């Protein structure tokens, strides 16, 4: 049952997070009018209609209580927020057939963490990268979002590497390197012959990086392609000396960054920007989530509820509510992202300025946009065709970028950039 998505989106349309608003007058009116409309459409008769109405009313009540809890947190009324969080966690299940109820369940968990952090200043739990990487691979298999990022970026990199004999890719958060075998295959079959490929993979675990390097090396050998892998256990923004990346003069250099909210992969934004300028790559491929991490708690709450309800709805359109893969992705990935957007930091949030939209900052700092080509668009459409129902997804070229969304909500934007004088 996916009616919960429409309930969430309808409520969000009535709220402007940057303005003062009255919960009772705004959301309460929405709940009343929607319940009345639902009742009149159902005609008020029949057991199925009654059950549907009861489920709809439950969803409306959950969303209303969730908003009220967010307002309490935003004004530091933690006692009242705690009471509502307890009520929400008892009412909403992450296993529910209702998309809206699943969303509320995970948001309630994140807000519970926020309340505890605000009271006690508890640090965030350590990141289990093996667990995240495993769930990320499942996410790659059950939805088009990861594949969209991989294939559109690969196409831009392929075009930048034309007729180059030595190429170097710096992946700012390589994980398992899922996207690179497809690029290797195309490079290995070039008319002019395969280039020598060098890859610098950045991450937080040498063990995981070495394993990724072995997998990529074995794949390259099967293709008869010359390949080197250099692991760097460091956040890109924390690199003190670019010699750590072992950049070689004469190599065509590409930098790839698939952004997410699972953990901080790159460190300080301004340092990351400065290092990108120093690297002077031939191409930067960037895939951004269309969600903001800046602003007040209420700003982030409204934006993330809008964003993640669309993600949940897209997964629910492709997989049944009891699917184990769907639950693994929701629990291990999406829940963690929601928690990082809402809960991590609390009053001790770093206050460090984060770029709202990285592609805008690249344009302001000396980088030139490389319009995503028609071939990249075709790659994106092929990916969507693998995941019915395709009618829910939206894919289009917007100001030189490629944007993937679900219904009316933009979710991921892919763009490519180069320096004025690049390698």
Automatic annotation (TrEMBL):
<dbReference type="InterPro" id="IPR005202">
    <property type="entry name" value="TF_GRAS"/>
</dbReference>
<comment type="similarity">
    <text>Belongs to the GRAS family.</text>
</comment>
<feature type="short sequence motif" description="VHIID">
    <location>
        <begin position="167"/>
        <end position="171"/>
    </location>
</feature>
<dbReference type="Pfam" id="PF03514">
    <property type="entry name" value="GRAS"/>
</dbReference>
<feature type="region of interest" description="VHIID">
    <location>
        <begin position="136"/>
        <end position="201"/>
    </location>
</feature>
<keyword id="KW-0805">Transcription regulation</keyword>
<feature type="region of interest" description="SAW">
    <location>
        <begin position="343"/>
        <end position="418"/>
    </location>
</feature>
<keyword id="KW-0804">Transcription</keyword>
<feature type="region of interest" description="Leucine repeat II (LRII)">
    <location>
        <begin position="211"/>
        <end position="243"/>
    </location>
</feature>
<protein>
    <recommendedName>
        <fullName>DELLA protein</fullName>
    </recommendedName>
</protein>
């Amino acid at each position: 049952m996916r009616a919960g998505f429409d309930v969430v989106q309808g409520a969000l349309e009535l709220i402007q997070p940057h303005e003062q608003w009255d919960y009772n007058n705004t959301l309460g009116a929405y709940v009343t009018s929607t319940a009345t409309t639902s009742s009149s459409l159902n005609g008020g008769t029949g057991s199925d209609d009654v059950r549907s109405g009861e489920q709809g009313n439950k969803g409306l009540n959950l969303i209303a209580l969730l908003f009220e809890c967010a307002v309490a947190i935003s004004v530091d009324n933690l006692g009242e927020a705690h009471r509502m969080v307890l009520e929400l966690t008892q009412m909403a299940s992450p296993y529910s057939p209702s998309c809206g109820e699943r969303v509320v369940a995970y948001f309630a968990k994140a807000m519970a963490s926020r309340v505890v952090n605000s009271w006690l200043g508890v640090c965030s739990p350590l990141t289990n990268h093996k667990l995240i990487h495993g769930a990320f691979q499942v996410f790659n298999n059950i939805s088009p979002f990861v594949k969209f990022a991989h294939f559109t970026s690969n196409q831009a990199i392929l075009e930048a590497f034309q007729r180059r004999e030595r190429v170097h890719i710096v992946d700012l958060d390589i994980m398992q390197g899922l996207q690179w075998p497809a690029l290797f295959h195309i490079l290995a079959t070039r008319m002019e012959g395969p280039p020598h490929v060098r890859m610098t993979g950045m991450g937080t675990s040498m063990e995981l990086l070495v394993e990724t390097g072995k997998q990529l090396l074995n794949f390259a050998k099967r293709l008869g392609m010359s390949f080197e892998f250099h692991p760097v256990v460091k956040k890109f923004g924390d690199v003190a000396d670019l010699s750590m990346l072992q950049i070689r003069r004469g190599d065509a250099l590409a930098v790839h960054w698939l952004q997410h909210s699972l953990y901080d992969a790159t460190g300080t934004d301004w340092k990351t920007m400065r290092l990108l300028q120093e690297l002077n790559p031939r191409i930067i491929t960037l895939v951004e989530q269309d969600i903001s991490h800046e602003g007040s708690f209420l700003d982030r709450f409204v934006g993330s509820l809008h964003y993640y309800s669309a993600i949940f709805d897209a997964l629910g359109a492709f997989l049944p509510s009891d699917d184990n893969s769907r639950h693994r992705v929701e629990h291990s990935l999406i829940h963690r992202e929601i928690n990082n957007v809402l809960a991590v930091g609390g009053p001790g949030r770093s206050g460090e300025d984060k770029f709202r939209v990285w592609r805008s900052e690249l344009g302001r700092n000396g980088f030139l946009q490389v319009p995503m080509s028609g071939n990249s668009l075709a790659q994106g459409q092929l990916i969507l065709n693998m995941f019915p129902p395709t009618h829910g997804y939206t894919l289009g070229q917007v100001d030189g970028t490629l944007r993937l969304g679900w219904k009316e909500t933009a979710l991921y934007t892919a763009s490519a950039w180069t320096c004025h004088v690049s390698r």
